[in-house]
Amino acid sequence: MITHLLPMLQESANGVNFEYSSQGSLGPVGTIVLLGVVVVMIAAMWKVFTKAGEPGWACLVPIYNVIVYLKISGKPVWWIILFIIPFVNFIIALLVSLGLAKNFGKGGGFGVGLWLLGPIFLMILAFGDAKFVGQKS
User: Fold this and answer.
1) How far apart are CA 137 and CA 119, in angstroms?
2) What percentage of the chain has pLDDT greater than the value 90?
3) pLDDT tens digits for 27-50?
4) Could you count the other beta carbons within 10 Å of the beta carbon of residue 52?
5) Which range marks the domain in which residue 119 is found?
C-alpha cells in the first residue's frame, strides 16, 4: 500500500537539498564582544567583592564566588544548595539580590534590578559611589 507513495515522495524530494550546516561560532566580532563583556563582568564582581572587604580574586573561583556572594548579601552559606533546585533558584536569586542591595545601602528597586538586569546593576554597584554598609540588624 505504501509502496506506491514511495516514487512520489522521491520525486518531490529530488532537487531539494536537506543538508543543514551550523558553524556554532560567533565569528570574530562576536567573540571580541563576548570577551569584552566577560572582562567587564569580572572587573565589576572583583570591585563589589573588594568594596565588601572580601578578596577580589574570589570572583574567579567557581562555587567559592557564590559562597562569598551569599556572605556579602547576608544570607546563609547553605543557600547554595537552593540554587540547584529548579524554580526555587529564581526566588533565592531575588532574595540574594535584595540582600546585596540592602547591604550596599540601596533599596528594593535596585535589588530587583540586580535580579533582572544583573550585569548592568552590578556595574552600577561596582563603579558607582555605593559603599558597603553591612548588615543592619
Assistant:
1) 28
2) 72
3) 889 899 999 999 999 999 999 999
4) 19
5) 24-127
C-alpha distance from residue 127 to each of 60, 115, 120, 121 (Å): 18, 18, 11, 10
Whether 89 is in a domain gets the answer yes
% of residues, the chain, pLDDT over 70: 80
In a domain, 18, yes or no: no
Instruction: Give the CA dihedral 127, 132, 133, 137, nearest 10 degrees.
Output: 130
C-beta separation of 101 from 114 below 8 A: yes
**Residue 35, domain member (yes or no):** yes
Distance CA 36, CA 127 (A): 16
Q: State mean pLDDT over 83-96.
A: 95
What pLDDT does 137 receive? 43
Answer whether residue 12 is part of any domain.
no
3-class secondary-structure state, position 5: coil
In this prediction the pTM is 0.76
Residue 100 · residue 68 · CB < 8 Å: no
Structural domain total, the chain: 1
Are 116 and 107 in contact by the 8 Å Cβ rule? The answer is: no
